[in-house]
Amino acid sequence: MKLIAVNTFLIFSLLGAGTTTCLASPPAGKTAPHSEKISHLPDSIAKSIKKSGISSQSVSISIDKISYKNQPEKSFSTSNLVDWQENLPMNPASTIKLLTSLAAMEVLGPQYRWKTDLLTNGKIQNGLLKGDLLIRGSGDPKLIPEEINKMLLNLQGLGVRKIDGQLIIDRSAYENSVKDTSFIDSDPTRAYNATPDALLFAFNSFSFEFYPNSQNNLVFIKQSPRMANFKIDNNLKIIEGACADWKKDISMSLTNSKNGAWTAVFNGAYPSGCQNATWNVVASDSDSFFTQSFIAAWEDVGGTWVKKPTLKSYDPKSEFKPIVTHFGVPLYESVKDINKLSNNVMARQVMLTMALEKTGKPSNANNSMKVLKDWLQSNQLNMPELVIENGSGLSRIERISSKNLNQVLLLGLNSSSKDYFLESLPIAGFDGTMRHRLLDKLRKYVPNRKEIATLEKNTIDFPVGLKKYGAYIKTGSLVDVRSIAGYVVSRSGNVYAVTSFINDPNPRNGGVIHDAILSWLLDDGPSSSKH
Fold this sequence. Notes:
Elements: H1 8-15, H2 34-37, H3 43-52, E1 59-69, E2 75-84, H4 97-108, E3 113-120, E4 123-125, E5 128-130, E6 133-136, H5 145-156, E7 162-164, E8 167-170, E9 205-213, E10 218-224, E11 230-239, E12 250-256, E13 262-271, E14 277-282, H6 286-300, E15 304-305, E16 311-312, E17 321-330, H7 331-340, H8 344-359, H9 365-378, H10 402-413, H11 418-423, H12 439-444, H13 449-458, E18 470-478, E19 481-489, E20 495-503, H14 510-522
Parallel strand pairs: 5-7, 6-8, 7-15, 8-16, 11-13
Antiparallel strand pairs: 1-2, 1-20, 3-6, 3-17, 4-5, 9-10, 9-14, 12-13, 18-19, 19-20
């Protein structure tokens, strides 16, 4: 993995003097001291900032009330309620996925489907495909085992039962530079660090599921996707213990040999408090990972090999003819995973796909960024502070202001893809990355008939996704970033767009601030006499 050389002058000019080289630096000291301006914030929010121990200068907040207007055209508009350092360029972490996913649905269409092609330089006769099989990817972010099985069943539909040839992978839809990143941490094997790949299969990650059996004091380990030449050396024992930090007493190594064989070795102790758990690990060799998975997948659908294939290098000058084209799940389904589950590599694949489709050339970060910025300009959104590296938020250098991310939220409501966009947002206390947030508050509120009638009346012109009381919020988290962005529907049916960034060396208590902001909006705080 290559680190991008960060333009120090650019970052300093964006963030001002005093910027450090940490993951997301606190904003520059151009604002008034904490005590001078924090009183301008609603009382509950100001108190939460003081309680958190986080400097107010590390916080950026933008809150707008959303209204529907029928004339001169049916659309939504906003009126500003709360601004706090709203123009500062801040690291948004994963909330930038809102921009990436909305732009993709607008540029490509929510029904867009990626293609994965099977081609051959041979021929099919009497159930035998005699010739090499080339697999060409176009960046499908959700090319999971079930999708590969569908593709291979379509191959069988051509009469193929046996294959006599080698495998070839074509990843030319992406330039090699797409793996470059400004972000790196101590564990490149973690699933969130998976890098883009034009033939990204199963997120290029092993998934190990653990099931303890207390009767024999052993742990059963199931691995997916299924692979040929794969072995698990399981030496785990069960011990008494809670599940909170279940990996701490387990060591794991994952190696592959030149012949394509993989071995996973587990040693240590598994706590009895874990009924089951999952450990995802990025494969170090994506070629071998895909090849061994493909071999197993063909066998799983009943296919056979004359001889187990090996991987041949792709020669773009060689002649192959297409035999099967597999269309993946529609874009809007991937957008739901990107926003609800905050999947980084899927967001990066979607970002690259925009450029691939618009330019017809192998995609890279630069042409992807240009397509996105051109789309913003076509919607009269000028964001001079915007820095996009990969569109996922897993970046040291991505920047946007809270004010402008709120503009993206408004654009989302006026988009033809608004229903898909809203459906992708995590719902507080219910699902995604917000499933454990505001649980007590949301459960305690039981509206009466009058309150229900008021909410229904005030949200009558809003999309289905914003007709219920609640917080529909994308979250973001890095080592020194906490962020939220999305919509809140209050008790009385007022609808708000809210974005808040915290860029601070120690943002652990940032949730206190963000929960206070969301609670204030849920309780119709803006309607109170004192803000």
